[in-house]
Amino acid sequence: MSATIAGASWLSDPQLQKLLAVLNADGGEARIAGGAVRNTLLGEPVADVDIATSNLPDETVRRAEAAGFRTAPTGAEHGTITVIAGGKPFEVTTLRADVETDGRRAKVVFGSDWTADAERRDFTINALYASADGSVIDLVGGLTDLDSRTLRFIGDAETRIREDYLRILRFFRFFAWYGKGRPDAEGLKACARLKDGIARLSAERVWSELKRLLGAPDPSRAMLWMRQAGVLTAALPESEKWGIDAIHALVRAENDLGWKADPLLRLESIVPPDAARMKTLGDRLRLANVETDRLVQWAATAKVEPTVTEGELAKRLYRGNVDAIADHLRLDLASARGRAEQDDKALIEAGGYFRLLSFIGTWQKPDVPLRGGDLAALGVEGAALGSLLKALEGEWVDSGFVLDRDALLKRAAKMLKV
């Protein structure tokens, strides 16, 4: 089976072509490798262009710098040199083979064997190469699998996984993005058998894969298979006994309502709204502080009923966490829409949630029309001033934000006389 990516706009970049020419000169050889080839053949966007070469890392640096490019030894011990060409970074990696693995990282030897380099990679669709003219080189059957959207380990699935247990999560992540139908049976069985190896991985690597999976156009099928294989529980125990059905309705709502795919919102749809557990999850997977805080705030915030008035919602928004309230409303709207075809009550609820979300989209937090200086003029100072200001702010919110400065001052004077 043959293919070409000669028409790809990124391949005609003069700086990229110059870099390839430099690496291909004097007996060297260089090819585009991996994701850029795969995505171009699938008609998907290409974010990064990686290059594989027979040149050793030092020779890559020498050639690139002699041609006027800047270089950085971002992974020189594993053969990777980043070359800056035309302001764009290209990772150039020497052909290699694994000589020792421990399930997390590998010791490699450099070489010039393209087949050995291909066979050390994870999946057939990720082991495609392309020459400078766009001709695709397939050494492991990746084109056939790409055509059928089959995600298949190269060689023996268990062997590939034991080299790096992260490949279990990558199997489902790539299936979510590029797979079709049922996952490859041998790959699925191997992931189920070796799922305990996930515990050996660093938290950062696990969360990185889960987040990319949750960011797929529709991760629901992949997550269903993860659940059945026991992999989802191994990676995300908070989802156990909670269910993942809600993510199906959420993806449909995103597509129908034009919402951007949101990995954190999708995560919220499959875990319990328990603030303590969300804090534990964030700590265990070492989420960014802003990510953990979002999960905790969502879990600690009460849901909003679809019958609530805009006025009452405005009070909750002022006193609470706007993003957390919005997250609950999005999840509840998605759920109600999913039930609406068989349940008239759910259809009405969906309308209420949509109304409240629309209100949040236009709501702006109002400013309290009273300042500490106003109360100081009445002779209030110190802790008493703060307490009084807080009490007056509460009355202003309870009034629906209609009490003005004069009304609040009158109320303050009355409170001071009591």
Count of strand segments: 9
Give the helix proportion (percent range). 40-55%
Order of helices and strands: HEHEHEEEEEHEEHHHHHHHHHHHHHHHHH
Determine the N-to-C terminus distance. 90 Å
Oligomer: single chain
Structural class: alpha+beta
Strand order of the largest sheet: 3-4-5-2-1-8-9
Strand content: 5-15%
Low-confidence stretches: none
Can you summarize the main beta sheet?
A: 7 strands, mixed
Radius of gyration: 28 Å
Query: In one word, what is the shape?
Result: elongated
Count of helix runs: 21
Mean pLDDT: 94
Family: Belongs to the tRNA nucleotidyltransferase/poly(A) polymerase family.
Cofactor: Mg(2+)
EC number: 2.7.7.19, 2.7.7.72, 3.1.3.-, 3.1.4.-
Pfam families: PolyA_pol, PolyA_pol_RNAbd
Quick summary of this structure?
The chain has 418 residues and is α+β, with helices and mostly antiparallel strands. The protein is built from 21 helices and 9 strands.
